[in-house]
Amino acid sequence: MNIVIASGKGGTGKTTLATNLASYLAQNHQVVLSDLDVEEPNSALFINGQETQQTDKFKMIPKWNGECTGCGICQDVCAYNAILQLGTNIILHAQLCHSCYACSELCPIDALPMEPVQMGVMSEIKTPVMEFIESKLNVGEEQAVPLIKETTDFIQEQYPDPVIKIYDAPPGTSCPVIEAVKTADYVILITEPTPFGLHDMSLMAGVVRDMDKPFGVVINRYGVGNDDVLDYCSKEKIDVIAKIPNERKIAETYSRGELLFEKFPAVKAALRDIEHHLFSLDPGAVS
Questions:
Q1: I want to staple 200 with a disulfide (CB 3.0 to 4.6 A). Which of 9, 97, 142, 261 is the partner?
Q2: pLDDT tens-digit readout, 87-99
Q3: Distance between CA 183 and CA 151 in Å, rounded?
Q4: Minimal CA–CA distance to 198: which of 170, 226, 177?
């Protein structure tokens, strides 16, 4: 079962829910948690574990060997404007390359061989109750998608079902979160009951609907703001799986990098509601 924790914006409690839900489920199930917010991963702040392995991750980028017939095929086929042909000279903008191989494969004189370029690292961390995988993009790298894909591919291969895989997705609705949601059997959208929370959550709800993924909503900091999120979910027939109350002591505990569910019965009850919801879903909808 692949569970992706997502939201339309940052700061709504994705990492709080991902780390607490993973730790809670790990009491009775085999669980692996992964932080896919590769530009700014922070799940490790809440997970006490021992790093067992760190692996460099690479993407494939073309490198011009200095030869060119001036045919223009490489520039024409590049959908991302990563290649500029000036006469018989080729200028490569590596940060725009999406590693599609088109220029390299179609060059009639093989002048653009693909070469590996390191884009980040992936760490495997063992905790007393579960496995934790964290990937981190190199500073200056502009594309998170290739590293997210490498990370999810690794986890799918190394941790087949019935292991419960919980992914802490990047914030927003752009390409990185789309890549993270691709693997989901179920998506949990976490939001806060404010106008900003509703706006960004509704955008993300549209994304997962377009991707034909089953999903539900968890409301964090319940008690502030208004009931517009509840009204929206009712109108759109979206399940509200659980509510995490707004309490100052919860925020203080979070700020110290501590898990919440063992200290706050209301948080543990919310996680129990989520667990019951996940395991009550139609097996045909969630594998």
A1: 9
A2: 999 999 988 999 9
A3: 11
A4: 226
Give pTM, 2 decimals: 0.89
Residues in the chain: 287
Residue 282 has pLDDT above 80, yes or no: no
DSSP 35: E
Residue by residue, DSSP assigns 99-157 as ---HHHHH-TT----EEEEEEEEEEEEE-SS-EEEEEEEPTT----HHHHHHHHHHHHH
Q: At what angle do helices 14-25 and 265-279 cross, to 10 degrees?
A: 70
Structure tokens at 151: 């990370």
β-bridge partners, 164: 31
What is the C-alpha separation between 20 and 18, in angstroms, rounded?
A: 6
Number of Cβ within 10 Å of residue 226's Cβ equals: 11
Write the pLDDT tens digit of every residue in 194-216.
999 999 999 999 999 999 999 99
Q: Provide the CA 249 distance to its chain's centre, in angstroms.
A: 28
Query: What number of CA atoms fall less than 13 Å from residue 200's CA on the CB side?
Result: 20
Quick one: which of 162, 281, 284, 287 has its CA closest to 216?
Answer: 281
Dihedral of CA atoms 9, 10, 12, 13 in degrees, nearest 10, equals 130
Q: Which two tokens stand for residue 268?
A: 């543990």
Q: DSSP string spanning 180-209?
A: HHHT-SEEEEEE-SSHHHHHHHHHHHHHHH
Return phi, psi of residue 138, to 5°.
-60, 145
